[in-house]
Amino acid sequence: MFWNTKNAGKMLSAAVIGFSAILAPVISSSVFAQETAATFDWTREDVSKIKMNEENTAPVINKEELEELTEDFLVWDTWPLQDRNGHPAVVNGHKVIFALTVPSDVIPGKRHDTAEIRYFYAKDGKSWQLGGRLFDDGKALGSRQWAGSAMIDKDGKVHIFYTATGRKNEKKLTYEQRLATATADIVTTNASVAFKNWSEHKIILEPDGEYYQTESQSNQGESSYAFRDPYFFQDPKSGQEYILFEANSAGTLSERACQPDSSKPYNASIGIAKASSDSLTEFEALPPLLEANCVNDELERPSIIVKGNQYYLFAKTHHEKFAPGLDAPEGLYGFMSGSLLGGYKPLNGSGLVISNPKDNPYQAYSWMVMPNGTVISFVNYVHVEGKDIQQIGEQTPDYQKDHFGGMLAPSLKISMADDKTRILHEKKQGVFR
């Protein structure tokens, strides 16, 4: 059912690492760490255990009852400014969130082609005001920017991690994805929040072809590719700092063996890299925390929290990203381990934590779990009369705009007890705490 294109116990000498860093631009920003980790395989057997019930199915969303963050922009993937320990930060009384945005007249199905990060702030954590575009004009890397994370350290310096997609000023849209960072000072008044004194933007990680699939490997017969969504994490047990990210298992389609054979293109993974500089501008690639070979092709926006002595790893995925023969909902999926770098097992036996209801299967997406169990997301497509996501994309611009939310969804509260979770209740729209 699964293939293995890497040797997880491989040890590289310092000379080889240095030589590779010089001659191979694809890993110029990172080297393989001399560590080993037991990558967890999420299997078809695990997914086959999924059962939707009241403990994992979200309430139906009625977007007409909700408020837009702003009438000028569509909003989707959203994340808070966090303290180094992962908790949502409060800066001089202000809470700050970041989101992928496009002008509201953009067709929802085309929004990823021109995405920019904007920020919002609120003292009460719910009456969000638009602060503006996060990055100065022309300074961000890539032709557009996709999701990431944001951390503020004790001296008030904000570290932004994001996905640089494509290349700046490219004439034809490309889907190259690299992990990038920049820092800024946060400046507040009683009524405003701004970011000043930006550093130079820097690429911190690119796929290596050994643990993580490169775009050229993906192009040999596959239709999708992922190396994105950097999430900053400080391990409270060791103090070591990392980024997690969405990726694909290394190798080409021809190197794989799956049953059924039609599941060969499905090779999602959750990657991790260890910080090797105090500035958080250099990282060492480690073996993936999780692979879903022959199972799933996109495990998006991974994040992790620690509760008690356990690590809870979360990612989101679409119904259509599961391999043929698997029937699993659009949802938030999770895994638990007593160790950061290995030993994970699916929460609730299958991995399913939150699913959209069957009669509104695309109502929300991009769930993110806060340390207190609050789960945020955005309103995706609602009340689509049985259409799948491809059929939605084939509808008229007016249809897409009418059915797309482009706003924060009502938050949810979940409980986590060992390897079991359940939805406790719905919270107000856009609540992060």
TrEMBL record:
Pfam family, one: Glyco_hydro_68
InterPro entries attached to this UniProt entry: Glyco_hydro_68, Glyco_hydro_beta-prop_sf
SUPFAM superfamilies per UniProt: Arabinanase/levansucrase/invertase
Recorded family membership: Belongs to the glycosyl hydrolase 68 family.
GO terms of molecular function: levansucrase activity; metal ion binding
Species lineage: Bacteria, Bacillati, Bacillota, Bacilli, Bacillales
Native species: Brevibacillus formosus
Keyword Flavoprotein (UniProt): no
Name this polypeptide is given: Levansucrase
Site residues by UniProt (Transition state stabilizer): D229
Residues annotated as binding Ca(2+): N267, D297
